[in-house]
Design brief:
The complex is a heterodimer of chains A (202) and B (231). By secondary structure, chain A is of the alpha/beta class. Chain A folds into two domains: 118 residues, Rossmann fold; 63 residues, Winged helix-like DNA-binding domain superfamily/Winged helix DNA-binding domain (Arc Repressor Mutant, subunit A). In chain A, helix 6 packs across helix 8, helix 6 crosses helix 9 and helix 7 crosses helix 8. A five-stranded parallel sheet of chain A has the order 2-1-3-4-5, sandwiched between helices. In chain A, 46% of the residues lie in helices and 13% in strands. Chain B has two domains: 62 residues, no CATH class; 149 residues, no CATH class. Helix content of chain B is 70%, strand content 0%. The radius of gyration of chain B is 19 Å and the shape is globular. Classes of the chains: A alpha/beta (202), B mainly alpha (231). Chains A and B meet through helix 9 of A and helix 7 and helix 8 of B.
Amino acid sequence: MMKTSHRKVLLIIPSQIVARGIEAVLAEHGEFRVEGILTDLSHASEARLRNMDADVIIIDPVVFDYVSRMTGRSRIAEHSDAAVVALKTIPMEEEQTRHYDAVISMYDDPVAVVKKLRESLAAREETPESEGHDLSQREKEILVCVAKGMLNKEIADHYNISIHTVITHRKNITRKTGIKTVAGLTVYALLNNLIDSNSIDF
Amino acid sequence: MTTEIQRIVFSESMKLADLIDVNFKLLNVLSRMGIGLGFGENTIQEVCARQGINLNSFLLICNIYTYDDYIPSAELLSGADPVTIVEYLHNSHSFYLDKEFAGLEKNLKSMVEPCSEKQKKIVARFFEDYKTQVEKHFSYEEEVVFPYVRALKEGRHQASYTIDQFEENHSNIDETLGDLKNIVMKYLPETCDTVMRNEALYRIYRLGEDLEKHTIIEDSVLIPMVNRMEA
């Protein structure tokens, strides 16, 4: 990743007061800069999420309703590779917070906030990078396996890679193509002649 | 949507025609509520009274259908009728299955006309699977949830079931429709006619939006209402 003078931050926070407060606190420090504020996670917001290429997303989990709060973190992951930091505005169970790369509280002082944002970025560095919009050769191979109905474990064994890496590849495939279901990926593979229709159960 | 539509709180004294002018997509709601066109200068209240439709329920549905961030007040929720909501949801199901899916299927068919037999088969099969998935989901609501709500309203509480078990998982259905959109938009061969492709896309977007509202009505109206009745 290219080094820039500041890291891009996207806020997903319904409260304008809180969002502007965070913007002001980060502006004083210079290392992180707020480049966008979304007040919800509608379809329009998701499109901006994909296009902004943020380094860090700070989200107030109240934007998810109670049921989806658990899976909220992975919803972001479908659209962006950014580190995701929860802003705790209401009491949260540990089960919910541990999905995030960091958690900041309304009462943290500015230094603590910046520190936590840095840590969240460090935590993200290890995952395999995936540049560009087109599928890489490896991603195409994995896509073919998925279309053929292979499980993550089988794919991992076949290529001698970890399951974690398989999952990351699958996330990248979905992010690039926009296709989420196995049936959809199969159609993609067939239409792009990555597999022959005779080779799958059809 | 909130940015496009000027924010107007719907009230019973509003003319029905003005309501449609604010959000023409509410035409769908009218037909599912059994309200025909030709209502002249009648107000929402007058039309609802004539048709025997619970006014609060109607206003709730129109508000949710129009404003993305609408949260129903406790007052409106307690004044609304769960059976009316169930009736609306049931009619929506029929509309999706009989009208929308049939229309979309036709769109897709003419769109893939220039494709190879194999490609036609792939698209048809994907849509067929989607339909089956949705039908299965609807039939659970039709056979379990809706009868439960109707019985509850009549004072018969089946102790073996509570609405909390209605743990909905619409996400698969949404994802499959999203995949169909991406396939039609991005991955079909260029030989497919653009106009037909656009028609299919418009329909998919409209259907997606409609289903999204449908889910919100279930989750933020029906479930809280039934929770109150169970208490």
